[in-house]
Write a structure and sequence with these properties.
It is built from eleven helices and two strands. With 275 residues, it is mainly α. It has one domain. Strands 1-2 form a two-stranded antiparallel ribbon. A hairpin with a 5-residue loop joins strand 1 and strand 2. The protein is globular and about 50 Å long.
Amino acid sequence: MEFDSIEILKVIFLGIVEGITEWLPISSTGHMLLVDEFIHLNMSAAFKEMFFVVIQLGAILAVVVMFWKKMFPFQLKDKMQPVIKKNTFIIWLKVIIACIPGAVITILFDDYIEAHLHTPMVIAATLIIYGLAFIVIEIWNRKNIPITPSLEDISYRTAFLIGMFQVLSIIPGTSRSGATIIGALLLGVSRIAAAEFTFFLAVPVMFGLSAIKILKFGISFTITEFLFLVIGMITAFVVSVLVIKFLMGYIKKHDFKIFGWYRIVLGILVILLLG
């Protein structure tokens, strides 16, 4: 693979798309499908899959950096001795519980789903179905006060059930953040707490999936390939920081209906262009 400024621009664009779509509940897979249809990267299929894994790591690192104080389960007391922050430790226990359903289903069915369900029509269908779900749930939620207002209030049972909803995201086009947020809203979790729990849950899930794929494909790259990975990862990281800040500010005053309508439009677009 030779260095090409046009390819660098494509890599930057894909990093931007990943940074935007990974954290908004609009399906990064659906967008990558459309982008890949019109922007053909000059790289092997195996390296392209690795590239998408690495830019996802850039996105998840943005969450770790932005929520470090809230996520890090230790604090330094006298004589620089680390002390466990009980509330944070409990949140991580709940996150681990929420990861169990998805881990089991992914191990059992990931290869089958990758081989048979990564099609434009499946992605279009899930985009539209979950878009409608967001609209209906938010209309229903207008008259309901959340029974779980904060991240710390999420129970072990609720965490596990949110993890069950996350299982749905194994189907392409669903959106991992979309599935967990929908599940949390249905269970009476506030929008802010739903988004924060989604961010926490993303860390072990995405690091785990990335590690599996990196082990699968290996880490032998040319200098140009390595450059593409670094540029894509940094771009996804920077854009993710901006998008997360936007989302957390937006949902303090607004609901998720706009993302539902967007998903429906994107699903129709996928059908028209790729169906």
